[in-house]
Structure formats: C-alpha cells, structure tokens
Amino acid sequence: MVDYVKVIPCLDTKDGRLVKGVNFVNLRDIADPAEVAEKYCSDGADELVLLDITATVEGRTTLLDVVRRTVERINVPLTVGGGIRNLDNMRDLFDLGVAKCSINTAAVKNPQIIKDAAAEFGSERIAVAIDTRKNSQMPSGFEVVVEGGRTPVGKDAVAWAKQCEDLGAGSILPTSMDADGTQAGYDIPMIRAIASAVSIPVIASGGAGTLDHLVQAVVEGKASAVLVASLFHYGKYTIREAKEYMASKGIKVKL
Prior knowledge:
Elements: E1 6-14, E2 17-22, E3 25-31, H1 33-42, E4 48-52, H2 64-72, E5 78-81, H3 87-95, E6 100-103, H4 105-109, H5 112-121, E7 126-134, E8 142-146, E9 151-156, H6 157-167, E10 171-176, H7 188-197, E11 203-204, H8 211-219, E12 225-228, H9 230-233, H10 239-248
C-alpha cells in the first residue's frame, strides 16, 4: 500500500508535441513536452507520465528524442508509453533514464511480454495501461480497447487487470475512453472495479475536470494515484492547489 497518494501530470504527445484531445480525438497542440515537464516538476509533481499516443497506430516506436529531452529536465520518475512492442524498446527507454515503461496494445496481443519484462527489469518498472469503454456484454461492464482506443478486443477490463497482475505487472493505469478529456470526472465504477480486484497500485486516468474529481478517484475509486492532464495543461489549477485540496479532504499527499 502506498504511504501517500501521488499526483501525476500526464503528457500526451504527438509528433513530439504536447497535445490534448477529447475521447482520444480532436487533438490540440499545447506546447513542448520537455518544457512543460520541467515546470510540473518545480510545481510539485510526484511523477510524470509521457504517452506517445499515435505511435502504435502509426506503427512506430516512441520518439526517443522527446523522451531524452524530457528526462534531462526533470527530477522525478518518468513513465513512458506508446509504441512499446518488445523488451528492446523498453531497454532503449530505460537506458535514457526512464523509470517505468507502460505497455498497452502489445500486452493485449502478447500477454507473455508482461511476464518477460517483469523478469528482465523488475515488476516495479512495468505498468500496464488499460483503455476501457462501457460494454454491458462484459461481466464487469467494461471492455478493453486497443490501438489508441480504436479497437475493442472482447476482453473484460477487470479480468484483464487481474491477469496483468498475475503476470507480474507492477501497476495498472486504466483510462476510460468514455471520460477521457471530457473533464466530467473519472469513470469511478470502472476504477473501483479494477482497484478492488488487484493488490498493485491503480492510477486513475481519464476525465478529471475539478479538484473534487481527484478526491473521488481516491475515496470512491480506491485509486492510489491520480493522472491529470487538462486540469493542469489549461492552467485551471496548479499541482500545489490540487494537493492542498486533497489534503484538506483527509487524503495523504506529499506537499
């Protein structure tokens, strides 16, 4: 169990630029990710996540130059995802100073990669991102989607999260396709269902629009960390304001 809840800004990148969309589409160019990462560090981010969101769809690996420039300017752990297909891709990222690799589509297509990566690099360095959408046909009510949220795979999201843990994943990063970028709140039932099913950290992602949403993710969703994009990117709140608000609601954060 974590001793405090982490607040983690998320940097979605496309063509080396920081972008933000709604439901994974209508992407807006925001800034240079390395510059923003440096600012978030000084603002009190506990960790950072950088996701190359079109790498998988474009059939390429993560843009290493963007990762390198970002790592050079930060002093907190960085998780990188997008276009990671094998252990060599992970090794390239770890060599640059990345703390964790986040795999998604590759893990769904070949679950063995989780086991191999955990054995090679350690579970704590392997996160599995799970993109979900509501589907009443699934036992949990949530289905796994891959390839940047474009392709449903007929897998139950909660069952898949449990399988990922069994294979050696160190953390789960579930993102609701339905909520992503809407700023209408995290998909609390989905996050709670996954967090209740596994014993590894679950990082709530997709939909934060108010400080209360962050509190809900922890209190109701049982998340051990919150991933935040729009709320910080558009200057609605600072990381410190978010942490102070969470602390005022009885959540242990690192101020």
